[in-house]
Amino acid sequence: MMTKFHRLLSMTTAMVVATASLAYAEPSAELIAAAKKEGMLTTIALPHDWCGYGDVIAAFKKKYPEIQVNELNPDAGSADEVEAVKANKDNKGPQAPDVVDVGLAFGPQMKKEGLLQPYKVSTWDEIPANIKDADGYWYGDYYGVMSFLVNKDLVKTSPKDWADLMKPEYAGQVALAGDPRASNQAILGVLAAGMASGAKAGKDAGEAGLKYFADLNKAGNFVPVIGKSGTLAQGATPIVVMWDYNALAAKDTLAGNPPVEVVVPASGVLAGVYVQGISAYAPHPNAAKLWMEHLYSDEGQNLWLKGYCHPARFNAMVKAGKVPQDLIDKLPPAAAYEKAYFPTLEEVDANKAAVTGGWDKVVGANVK
């Protein structure tokens, strides 16, 4: 596990002088002009409190005021993004997404289905090879680990591990932050639970995770409501399984009302990577490319870090002295991440098939 963790964290690309200038290049004047001429960028599934996207979008608007950012369905899941691209193949209107931000398993799926077009940003060499498509169809953007967000007004003793969630004291309190039939975050939440039981990452852990949630549901502890900061604050979902960066952002947003705790479980510490891609049918392909340049610039990467996400270029930027110390200091202690397991793409795919295909039959809870 440690090897996988450090392998992803170590951006081993040796930046030689010849490629250094390319890595830190600004978008070309031609690209900027073409994007401004298109005048719009259509995003989808980007909640402003997810990974600091509110600041990321605001920074893009400030940099390029001539480009209108059209935001579709901020609360959509990865599967919804795929369907939106498919449904709007022949539509050049405002309902057609230009770009997607999806879970790792969805990148290769979309490439295989011809839904993405290739593009390599200026800082391409600093994105680790094992989280990007060699041809540029999809590329890792940020990652975090699965955690528990706990409402301390309602939960006196916070759960420390997955097994704790089965205790009677957590009756009617535990929720996932998405529909496990469509949400990457929820699908990987099931994987983490399965791994905590000792199952091998992939199909085995996916099936073990389904059994775990079936048992949690039978015990009356699972709540079939999509958990978020609002439902947590209202008491509908006092414990939510979600990415650490979403939990930490919720903690900031709630500002003590109610007080919350973010717990990285003692076992089944799962790291998840999200990837970017440009729709093959993007109505505004140049604006989409300019958006990618923004996301992978020093500014964009640091804005994600401000939102508690570990950006793809994190280690390379730290080494180059481009990450403010105050952002590093706000992250949870490194020790919490030492057990983190980065599943392979094959393991992510196998888990996704097991979870999406088996949830209704094994668990039978209609999460919405």
Describe what this molecule looks like in 3D.
The protein is α+β, with helices and mostly antiparallel strands and 368 residues long. It is 40% helix and 14% strand. It has 15 helices and ten strands. It has helices at residues 2-9, 17-23, 29-38, 53-63, 78-87, 106-112, 184-196, 203-218, 229-234, 244-254, 285-295, 298-306, 314-319, 325-329, 345-362; strands at residues 40-44, 68-72, 99-103, 116-117, 139-151, 174-176, 239-243, 260-263, 271-279, 310-311. Strands 3, 4, 5, 6, 7, 8, 9 and 10 form an eight-stranded mixed sheet that branches. It has a two-stranded parallel sheet with strand order 1-2. Helix 3 packs across helix 11 (285-295) and helix 7 (184-196) packs across helix 8. The longest helix is centred in the last third of the chain and has 18 residues, at 345-362. The chain is globular and about 60 Å long. The two termini are 34 Å apart. The model is unreliable at 1-24 (pLDDT under 50).
Percent of residues in helices:
40-55%
- Uncertain spans, ≥5 residues at pLDDT below 50? 1-24
**For the terminal residues, how far apart are their CA atoms?**
34 Å
What is the radius of gyration computed over CA atoms, rounded to a whole number of angstroms?
20 Å
Give the overall average pLDDT: 91
Order of helices and strands: HHHEHEHEHEEEHHHEHEEHHEHHH
Strand content: 5-15%
| Oligomeric state as shown | single chain
Biggest sheet details: 8 strands, mixed
Structural class: alpha+beta
Annotation field: number of helices: 15
The shape is globular
